[in-house]
Amino acid sequence: MSEQLAEGVIELLRQRGLRMTPQRRVIVSEIMRTQGHISPTALARRVQGELPGVNASTIYRTLSVLEEAGVLAHAHLEGGAEYHRAEDAGHVHLACSRCGAEDDLSLDEADALQQLIEQHHGFLPDLTHFAISGLCAECRRELSAG
Amino acid sequence: MSEQLAEGVIELLRQRGLRMTPQRRVIVSEIMRTQGHISPTALARRVQGELPGVNASTIYRTLSVLEEAGVLAHAHLEGGAEYHRAEDAGHVHLACSRCGAEDDLSLDEADALQQLIEQHHGFLPDLTHFAISGLCAECRRELSAG
DNA sequence: GTATATGCAAAGGTTTTGCACAGCC
DNA sequence: GGCTGTGCAAAACCTTTGCATATAC
User: Fold this and answer.
1) Could you tell me the pLDDT band of residue A6, with boundaries at 50, 70 and 90?
2) What is each CA distance from A44 to A37, A122, A128, in whole angstroms?
3) Is A113 in Cβ contact with B126 (below 8 Å)?
4) Contact A94 B134 (CB under 8 A)
5) Is CATH 3.30.1490.190 the right assignment for the domain spanning A92-145?
6) How far is the alpha carbon of B125 from chain A, nearest alpha carbon, in Å?
7) CB of B22 nearer than 7 A to strand D
């Protein structure tokens, strides 16, 4: 399935007049097979594992290209910026500041939050762009118990 | 008023056995008079304007000390980490990705959001830790008009 | 006097950029 | 063949750290 995703992206880049190099192929295929988010550094490691010698600057430049093409988007998590597939939008990220656990809000929940913010400010939030930090249920229990 | 805040902080640091140097005095006074958030770099500029020669590492170390003492907290905005007074908690930050405008949710609104998230996951969010990105009302209008 | 805070310099990490060369179309 | 993409190296940031010195208490 991610193979097909990668194919589609390659097609789209072609249509935009962009060139498909071996590096781009590997980068696209890696990031399209990634569930959720990945940092540029982590992506670089994976890509270099598959095609040694790919330079970090190529990773960054390709990520920009893909973001401009609407294929990717980035979000801010505790550790910095991470990239995810644009079609994976709606993933509102919950990150536990104590144990690092990660969870996502459902689309319905995200909608409810969005409407709440929208009503009071006319502000249209993109809740996917920043994570939501806090304490997961388990850590809350442990803290109140201990 | 911010003078009194700074006094209180200095008192608190004293009680903790921390020393009050001229550098710390200026840093504390600058950050206590700051409404909202400020980046370490921006703070450094201000402090150095008032007391030339203060090293950046002193700024960072003092920010850490103040955060550990519970006086400050940091939040993640588009441009990176920024510090704000801990008592200014509850400031949920709305940042327009188009024009850069900034706004805050009211405490009631923040509570409503928090409860919504809490109900569905047992996750206790700290909505102040990351900003909420999106489009402000004005930019939405301009975009739909243009 | 002693423990702590500072300045300085260096290192660390991530991301960007200029440039010559390679390679896609 | 021409233009785009890549690697390399350097730079630009931001932040941290080790160490000698200065200084608050």
Assistant:
1) confident
2) 14, 40, 23
3) no
4) no
5) yes
6) 4
7) yes
